[in-house]
Amino acid sequence: MKRVLFVCTGNICRSPTAEGVARHFIETGGLGSWIEVDSAGTNGYHAGEAPDQRTQKAAMKRGYDLSKLRARKLDQLDYQRFDLLLAMDRGHLDIMRRACPEIYRPRLGLFMDYARDSEFDEVPDPYYGGPMGFDAVLDMCENGVRGIIESIVRAG
């Protein structure tokens, strides 16, 4: 079993989108015994909240139900619990590296490093933009999640 954690700022836009997409792909691919996913934020100011309504709306249009997800803050045990902790951008990765015990640092990475043929290396925050930003995040999350799943399955 591989455990993957997706991390963004407040855990209401990017990381729950990645989690929702991953959950869907894992379920439809029959990979529930291979991969477990979760998401968290580097900050806890949205802890307990559902994903942003615009995030949920964009996801639902593609068949991803994020309504049951709740934001939480990244905690120290996450570095031990998860095999991969993937940041949505370099700022998150820097925060994670500073907080992570050295022994677990090899588990940290950028989410988009798993995307195939993408011109992007970070997932931009759609929070202050229009609806198209949420669709772009979904495109990136679908691409990155496919790469992560392929990587885990290939590694056996």
Characterise the protein shown here.
This protein is 42% helix and 13% strand. The protein is of the alpha/beta class and 156 residues long. The protein has one domain: Response regulator (Rossmann fold). Helix 1 links the parallel strand 1 and strand 2 (35-41). Helix 1 (14-28) packs across helix 5 (131-155). It is globular and about 40 Å long.
Furnish the topology, listing elements before pairings:
Elements lengths: L1 E7 L5 H15 L6 E7 L11 H9 L14 H6 L2 E4 L2 H10 L8 E3 L20 H25 L1
Parallel strand pairs: 1-2, 1-3, 3-4
Helix pairs in contact: 1-5, 2-5
Please state the overall shape, judged from the principal axes of the Cα atoms: globular
- Report how far apart the termini are: 10 Å
Strand count: 4
Structural class: alpha/beta
CATH topology descriptor: Rossmann fold
Which architecture per CATH? 3-Layer(aba) Sandwich
- Measured on Cα atoms, how large is the radius of gyration? 14 Å
CATH class group: Alpha Beta
Helix coverage percent:
40-55%
Return residue spans where pLDDT drops below 50 for at least 5 consecutive residues. Answer: none
Full CATH superfamily name? Response regulator
Mean pLDDT: 97
**Number of helices, counting only DSSP H or I runs of 4 residues or more:** 5
What is the domain total for the residues?
1
Q: Per DSSP, what share of the residues sits in E-state strands of 2 or more residues?
A: 5-15%
Order of helices and strands: EHEHHEHEH
Describe the largest sheet.
4 strands, parallel
